Amino acid sequence: MAYMDDMRTWAQQLPYRGRWEDHEKTNWLISSPFREDRHPSFSIDLVKRTCLDRASGEKMLLSEFCQALGIEEPSRQDGKSLPSRRDDETTQAEKNRGYIQDVWNSAAPAPADFPYLQRKQVPPHSCRTCFDRNMADQVLLVPAYNASGELVGLERIPATQGQDKKHLKQKKGACHLIGTVSEGKPVYVAEGYATAASLHLITGQPVAVAFTCWNIEAVCRIFKDRHKAEPYACPDAGDAGKIAATQCRSAGFQVVELPPESRNGLDWNDVHVEQGIETARALFRDRWAVAQAESVWLSREEEKISILDLVEAPSPGSAQRPEKIWHFPRKHLNLVAADPGMGKSILMTKVASDLSIGAPVLGMIAEPVRKTLYLNGECGKDYFNWRFKASGWKYLDDNFQVVHQEVLSDKGVDLDLDTPQGRKNLENLLHSNTPDLLIIDSLPAFSDEDLNDGKAQNEICKHLKTLATKYNLAVVLITHLRKRRLQDQGTEPTLSEIQGSNAGAKLCNVALVIYE
To answer: pTM of the predicted model, to two decimals?
Structure first.
């Protein structure tokens, strides 16, 4: 009796919604983990320890089911597990691999107009096509490679809509990589091919197909251990995805989940196809930010920091007045705002030039030599350089470094403040250049977020404040004022007139407003 109770518990803990088919609770019915199965048709007989896919007629041992999905097989009544293959395991694996390789070698490169790819609006990243006799249809072949780069499985996706996918041979520890992975850089891991291909379009980063939610953690581990990359799990919405997300978090991987209110089974390809690529990108940025915040919280949890440990009394004895870079204190976010055409960019360029040589800033009070990193997105590189030629301003190369958005775009390098790669690149710049002053000219040039989106702008400004503290620098964000009403012209502008949501005005330390 205890044995069957253990078997029932094992079945109910599978990350697929199921139900009992009999009063004795010996047959557990779930959606097939090997194909799309909206109407559960995969039966597990706990007494006979066998599985039956009623849609395809395919049978397998429970041990084979567990091996294919990379899960632990429940013990038999005698306390032992059944072998995963009835023949010699190594010999059978070699036979399987040879057959898979033959199928793959005989297939043709997948065309972009393959029906499935057209429906999903994604390209054929190294996939192939062939006619599958068992499925009686032309199929898209998605290769599954193990950690050593060996072809160990094939996913077959039929051209005809409504037919189910089928996976041939191994899934466990196997994946299909879209893009090129690099050490220390992000790689996203999704369940299905279309989801991964959409994520590649959304993020511009490498994405791996894990083929099933059960395999996401294993694939994340491969990229972490073998490639020293930074894996992010991206499961589908729903019960199975939640379980996969929990497993990945427990293993120490970051998880980018769809919004909690998403319908069961929703994935990033659904968002891409139904709402458009730009909406999908905006949603992903939002969910990625949630994952980052969660990661910070979890790291603090691991450090066992109690909120009670953070309560303290004022400590005037150890206090120091924040050092200022001209008017801007270190470890703070600051704003420079003005109407378009007022010369705020020219002003800050001149300030940075004077600071680079220790000259009196703007011909007034002398300041110590300071190093500036200037992110220029408001004008072209040539025009920026022409300002120096026309004015004759003096500066020291080592203390005045510039990154031009024009050049970034031409080279395909991301420095946006609302993308994972952009933030990582900015931190690399700050770490290597160690500036005293970071000037961002301007926010719209380095972010695609809506300026009126208070939540998004607040998150960006908080991130900039974090960088200011982490790298002990003053951050200056150049922004615009709203167009003023006629009756307000001639009066001093207020902080409420700064363009956008005013998140920067609320979080900044110094706001320098230029007006006539």
So the answer is: 0.51
